[in-house]
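Form P-L/3: holo structure prediction, ligand adenosine monophosphate.
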Amino acid sequence: MNDCIFCKIAEKEIPSEAVYEDDVIYVFHDLNPQAPVHVLIVTKKHIASLDAVEFDDIDALGWLITKVKDIAASLGLENGYRLVSNCGEDGMQTVPHLHFHLLGKRKMLWPPG
Ligand code: AMP
Ligand code: ZN
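OUTPUT (holo model):
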């Protein structure tokens, strides 16, 4: 999608602080971190949100999930972390390209606010 900010970030048309990249996913630091470690994991394919996931996305999302522990380890999150995807209006999603927040290096609140 041409006007999608996270597509542009994944395509390097907009700068970001990269953490990890492969053919399927791109990982970069959140501009407005909510924890000492806060990165965003996106699929290179534009998927609007969890609500827009299709059967064809199984491989990409399966791959993304298997990479989470490696990304977390590379960021020193040996004590644990939280993986979050906000979806839609009530989920307070602000960027309509599926992304997972990986947060760590502090105790997370539950339930979230
Ligand atoms: P959400 O509100 O769940 O859709 O998350 C969107 C996230 O994207 C927020 O945490 C923002 O801080 C982050 N964000 C927005 N624009 C950028 C950007 N250009 N680079 C890095 N993070 C961004
Ligand atoms: Zn996109």
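COMMENT: The radius of gyration is 14 Å.
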